[in-house]
Amino acid sequence: MKNWYSVINKKTENILSSIKTHAFITELINGTLPNDVFVFYINQDALYLSEYKKILAAVGTKCSNDDDTQFFLDSATGIIYVENALHQQFLKNEKLTEETSPSCELYISYLSRLTHTCSLEEALAAVLPCFTIYKQIGDYILSKQDNNSNNPYKDWINTYSGEDFEKSVKKAIAITNKYAESASPNVLEKMNKAFIKASKLEWLFWDSAYNKEKWKI
Ligand SMILES: Cc1ncc(CO)c(N)n1
């Protein structure tokens, strides 16, 4: 199938718009998101990213094309820098937890399971929303900023609406589309499921941060 991403992107428009209208995002846009909620989110995101980078490296080693492998290994390395920057800026002087929230754990575990026990095509489809949704949400938030300099979260906003991230998102889409081109209908169906599930988990991640989700026991 040609241009698989544009088809699945359309199919998941409802998930993207649910993220755009989520209180976490609307309050991030107008700068009223409570600091403790943002800190909870960044703390969980740091825990998420430290596993996600290993997942990207694993996806990279599954690719047979050298350029594709390099891309995922570079993305994994890039995440280490992002993590450190976010840590230093938003988490200094904060009390942090090492315990992943249930939704964070679920997202990491889902990606890890697909990467290690399913086909490369499914793994590629599962990790893609982390790129594409953050790009779309980053651009959306930036488009709603009249005076970005007053927003306490502007550095976070600029990270995901920037050009470097855009290049990387385009490349991730191109690689996944290339594999989809020669995939069977059965594999394409599995790729769709993985992309949809991971997109829902993106929504859940914001929602769980907004509610400062705890383990019930
Ligand atoms: C949960 C989540 N998904 C995607 C990204 C973008 O890398 C992120 N930082 N966190």
TrEMBL record:
<dbReference type="Pfam" id="PF03070">
    <property type="entry name" value="TENA_THI-4"/>
</dbReference>
<dbReference type="GO" id="GO:0005829">
    <property type="term" value="C:cytosol"/>
</dbReference>
<dbReference type="InterPro" id="IPR004305">
    <property type="entry name" value="Thiaminase-2/PQQC"/>
</dbReference>
<keyword id="KW-0378">Hydrolase</keyword>
<comment type="pathway">
    <text>Cofactor biosynthesis; thiamine diphosphate biosynthesis.</text>
</comment>
<comment type="function">
    <text>Catalyzes an amino-pyrimidine hydrolysis reaction at the C5' of the pyrimidine moiety of thiamine compounds, a reaction that is part of a thiamine salvage pathway.</text>
</comment>
<dbReference type="InterPro" id="IPR027574">
    <property type="entry name" value="Thiaminase_II"/>
</dbReference>
<protein>
    <recommendedName>
        <fullName>Aminopyrimidine aminohydrolase</fullName>
        <ecNumber>3.5.99.2</ecNumber>
    </recommendedName>
</protein>
<feature type="domain" description="Thiaminase-2/PQQC">
    <location>
        <begin position="13"/>
        <end position="211"/>
    </location>
</feature>
<dbReference type="InterPro" id="IPR050967">
    <property type="entry name" value="Thiamine_Salvage_TenA"/>
</dbReference>
<dbReference type="GO" id="GO:0009228">
    <property type="term" value="P:thiamine biosynthetic process"/>
</dbReference>
<comment type="similarity">
    <text>Belongs to the TenA family.</text>
</comment>
<dbReference type="GO" id="GO:0009229">
    <property type="term" value="P:thiamine diphosphate biosynthetic process"/>
</dbReference>
<keyword id="KW-0784">Thiamine biosynthesis</keyword>
<dbReference type="InterPro" id="IPR016084">
    <property type="entry name" value="Haem_Oase-like_multi-hlx"/>
</dbReference>
<dbReference type="GO" id="GO:0050334">
    <property type="term" value="F:thiaminase activity"/>
</dbReference>
